[in-house]
Design brief:
14 strands, 7-stranded mixed beta sheet, 5-stranded mixed beta sheet
Length: 215
């Protein structure tokens, strides 16, 4: 996979690999990183990028006329998702603990413990960073785990769970990490991408499985 650093980002998304793009960090979401996954038959936008006319046109181009699903992995990644929903008409999926935060979205659905999308993507509720945090696993041909804020890049070769001032419940986050390791396919070591934006030229867009360091 191609490394993505802060120097790469202007106002345009950057391609990580075939079908996967990273949007510039969203300053309305504490620098959250959003991702596009061009899967069939329903592509997915993971978390809310900066909502600008350029972003809207880019998403229309990516979607090739197909309605995409917007998945929100934690309450810090919502941004102006209502404006995005209004502009594109795409449905929004969120873990049920945080659905109440989006009362104005008409095409809103939620899940409890796990969810399987139309394109075969798997979601798992991983509370801790926020009450309704979740991760998304994209199986082959991608084999990528979108971690949201569950795992945060600390150095160019390390992802960890981090206790921050916005962490909802640290003990539950530790339990979520244990649950995640059991939930992932045993014969896979997925590539890891975080929902935390790029702040350093040394940080990469994607991390190897071995870069996940236990606290």
């Amino acid at each position: 996979m191609v490394p993505i650093s802060a120097a790469d980002f202007g106002n345009q998304p950057q391609q990580l690999k075939e079908g996967i793009w990273a949007f510039p960090p969203n300053n309305l979401c504490n620098g959250a990183q959003s991702w596009w996954l061009g899967c069939d038959p329903e592509p997915v936008l993971i978390d809310c990028p900066p909502v600008t006319p350029a972003t809207i046109e880019c998403l229309k181009t990516f979607s090739l006329g197909r309605p995409a699903l917007i998945v929100l992995t934690n309450r810090e990644s919502h941004g102006r998702v209502s404006a995005l929903h209004d502009a594109l008409g795409w449905p929004v999926l969120v873990q049920e603990q945080e659905a109440y935060l989006l009362p104005g979205i008409k095409k809103l659905s939620s899940f409890s413990e796990e969810c399987l999308t139309t394109s075969g993507l798997r979601l798992l509720w991983t509370p801790g960073p926020t009450p309704g945090s979740c991760v998304l696993y994209a199986p082959a041909p991608w084999n990528v785990l979108f971690c949201g804020r569950l795992l945060i890049p600390l150095k160019s070769n390390r992802l960890e769970a981090v206790l921050t001032k916005t962490t909802f419940h640290w003990t539950r986050q530790q339990k979520s990490l244990e649950k995640l390791r059991q939930w992932l396919p045993r014969d896979r070591s997925p590539v890891l991408v975080s929902g935390v934006g790029v702040h350093s030229q040394q940080w990469r867009g994607a991390f190897d499985w071995k870069d996940w360091k236990s606290s």
